[in-house]
Each structure stands twice: as structure tokens, then as C-alpha cells.
Amino acid sequence: MTAYAPSPTAAPSPLAHPRLPQAALVLASVGALGTALLSQYVGGLHPCEFCMWQRWAYVAAIVALLPGLANPRFRTASLVLGGLAFLAGAAIAGFHAGVEQHWWEGFTTCSSSMPKNLTLDQLRERLLSAPLVRCDEAQWTFHGISMAAFNFPASLVLGLVAWAAARAGAKRA
């Protein structure tokens, strides 16, 4: 009895395709952003400042990863930059989860996107109608785990996958 060995004419596995990890990372990022936007606009969960920063990390990852999908010359650098964006997002999510758990204090400042030339009545109306979203209170949890706490390992794993794919691509080249 002989061991199975694939014939040299057999088609390569789709998992061996060099663009697959990059495409999967882009799809995961789009999925994460879509989930965040659905939770906001359909679920009514308004994001705090830290939540918005975590979204920007996914946007940065997408922007970094797309050139590597389009041109193989940029693939390794694109994966490294995408990995950095994911790891930055993991750091933000970890910090945010710690603030929600009251392990440490969050930032005391907040940002505002209010236009500068509002009348007093317009400003009062905007402030009264705007939802108050605190970074130290989780709006939604599943078995005590907040979205930021879910995002931490997800972003960390995506970052490590991006770096592993970059390393594998560099070895192939």
C-alpha cells in the first residue's frame, strides 16, 4: 500500500492562493464595520468615542490591504500595514474594554462634531436630542462580554494572521 501523493497535474488548493489571506482580511474588516453600523442604525446602539476609533482601525486596515490585492508587488507591505492597523484596533479595544470594566480610567476629554456657528437655541436642541454615550458603560453585552471585549481578540487574531501571511509571502518571494 502506498501513501497518497497528489499528482503534479492536480490543481492547487484554493487555500494556497497568495491573495486569499488578504481577501479574507478585507472581508473580515468589511464584516466588522457592517456589524458596527447595523448595531448603530438598526439596533440603536450609539457608539462612544472609543468605538469610533475602533471603526477607524478597520477602515485603515482595508485601505492598507486593498493595494496588495490589486498588485502583487505591494502584497507583503500591504499585509504588514494592515496587520499594524488591526493591532492598533486591538490596543484600542483592549483599552476600551478595560475602561468598561473599570480596571482603569478612560480619557476625561471628549470630542464634538458640532458646527461652530450655531445659535444658542440650535445648540440647545442638538445637545438635548443627542444620545449620551459613555465610554465606561457597555451598551450591549453577551454573557457579560461587551462589543469592545469581543473586538479585542478578533482584531488581535486578524493582525497576527496578516503578519503571518506577510511572512509567508516574503519567504515565497
Automatic annotation (TrEMBL):
Q: Per its UniProt record, what PANTHER family does this chain match?
A: DISULFIDE BOND FORMATION PROTEIN B
Q: Which Pfam families match?
A: DsbB
A single Gene Ontology CC term: plasma membrane
Localization in the cell: Cell membrane
The protein's GO terms of the molecular function aspect are: protein-disulfide reductase activity
Q: Name one GO biological process term.
A: protein folding
Task: Give the transmembrane ranges.
Answer: 23-43, 55-72, 79-99, 140-166
Protein's UniProt name: Disulfide bond formation protein B
Alphabetical UniProt keywords? Cell membrane, Membrane, Transmembrane, Transmembrane helix
Q: How does it sit in the membrane?
A: Multi-pass membrane protein
Q: Which InterPro entries match?
A: DiS_bond_form_DsbB/BdbC, DsbB, DsbB-like_sf, Uncharacterised_DsbB
Upper lineage: Bacteria, Pseudomonadati, Pseudomonadota, Alphaproteobacteria, Rhodospirillales
